[in-house]
Amino acid sequence: MKNLKKSCALFVLFVLLCSCLGACAGGATGSGTSTSTNSAPAGNSDVASSADSTQTKSEKGVAAKTGPENAAPEADESKSANPEPGQKELHIGILQFAQHPSLDNCREGFLKGLAESGFVEGQNLTVDVQNAQADMGICGQIAAQFAGKKLDLICAIATPAAMSAYNAAQSKGIPVIYTAISDPVAAQLADSDKKPLGEVTGTSDRLPIKEQLSLIREVLPDAKNIGILFSTSEANSVSMLEVYKKLAPEYGFEIVDSGISSSSDIPLACDALLKKVDALSNLTDNTVVNSLPLILSKAKAKNIPVFGSEIEQVRLGCLASEGIEYISLGRQTGAMAAKILRGEAKASELPYEEIAEACLSVNLQAASDLGIKFSDELLARAVEKFTEISSANK
Question: Three-state DSSP class for 186?
């Protein structure tokens, strides 16, 4: 009997023990399910998709790491299909022949054109700017240094810079893009159909000489002789001078020219020329433009007007100009360079380009100093009217 009671007691204890163990196991299972639900609730992918639409690019990068396993591969495929310029840092050199506002504006416009096309200095673009200070020897040295660095592209500003860069870079396979060149054909950088003669192209600042001669005749109805100073070593100047001489008789003018070999020749050449002419007209001659303040001072003393070839020369004191606006020219060049840097085209596949229209600018202070009054019609079509004469250092 006692053994029976002990057996019953043991049976009851066994049943109670099993019940306790079952309850504990059920509690542990319930806790694990709750944790899983909190980390990935039902419908979570829809919420993530909605939030993703308001994330910044950096936030999306974080989300991709914590999202579904296939999110990261999708983002990588998108980037490879549409590569951004920033994926590779490029290195370019800018060789500027001389330091004066026209060429400075070209450089500024060039960098703007690149930035507008996705190539931003300091972000995905390293730019090495060098100035030859109107010295042909230094210009050649800089070009050789650039070629030795194996840059992705060289931008050459002005004809001497372009010729030096072209000669140095072609054997290295570095494309050259130029700007502020009046005659790429005369500089042997392109043929008569505007096709490049190698991996070199760019934009021309070819002067609207007919419009300039028409302007001079309108402002100075009694003038006969127009003086032009030019550098004998600049191919663009020699070329444009010939065009002036060809067209001048159509407007009742005779061209009186004076060639110089360096800036030191300018004072005497200018004095001699001012004795023979009724007005001076500038080319885009870098050596001459570099000495523009001196020329303007000497001409003002003789009460002889000087007509500029672009807007910056008018700002500095030239009477007027039917010429070029160089920031726009530079921006146009930057857009061409972007095509080359992206691999959309080779320089040899892009014909050189020109500014389509002339830009009339006048200086009212210079006119007042010379006792000249512009007609209302002329003022109405001027895109820029300067009311003072600015310093070259501004």
Answer: coil
